[in-house]
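Hey, resending since the last one bounced:
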Amino acid sequence: MHLVFLTERLLQGFGADRVVYEWAKYAASQNHRCTIWCIETDGSFPSLPGLEIRQVSIARPGLYPYYELWALRRVRYILRASAPADAWIVATIPFYPYLHWCSPSLVCDFGFPSTRGMSLFSRLNFGYMKWVQYHLHFPTARRIACISYYVRDCLGENLRKKAEVIYPGREHISQAETHPIRAKKAIMPDEVVLLYVGRLNPFAQPYKGVLLLRKIFLSLAKEVSVPVRLVLAGYGTERDAKILSGPGILVEPNISQTDLISWYAACDIYVSASPWEGFNL
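The structure tokens again:
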């Protein structure tokens, strides 16, 4: 079968991007021919035997309705270039309108974050996005893949009937790639390391809860009798690092894949403060 995936990005540091790539990679390993169309990629997710990464140029205006319209201008090109396609997996914005042309289709529902703390413009943008997806686009899909039962339960009754929960967890790293990062960062053997991996911007993505996590850790460090260290690793800027830093807190923005794997192996406890994601991707 030829499976065609449609996703906005393939960038290191974004969980949804990793999930889409791993799904396609697994399908390719089962002798399916897979194509992933994306708008933006940094080369972190390479083409493989049976898996082709293709990039399409689509303007990205800030207002979501216009983003969909720009994506629709490329629908005929993608349909022709992907033919013959046996099934379509529509993973992210702005490709959900393609569900009206691509059949049979499966749509991925990664859920919607809380808009608390966002600007009025962002709240309106997310509100429109949520409404058109659940009322106009998703009803045309044959099946809906949700990443958790919570996300599935947020769907309307009719959509829940064709929704199935598929947890996105998949082992894609090797312990053999680790190195002694605790010693490299001067962390003592008796320190308990708490690790968070995810986006670090506390204002553009307040729903990740990194400021809350920082607050909880600083309070915890005063109450426990053992030395503790919080490591915040992921996609962010030096400004984010300054905002999130504090006593016992190590911020690691945009670290290498090798260092990230090493932190997974070196930590004692993995932590998350996202109030809407059952568990970070």
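The chain has a mean pLDDT of 91.

Sorry for the duplicate.
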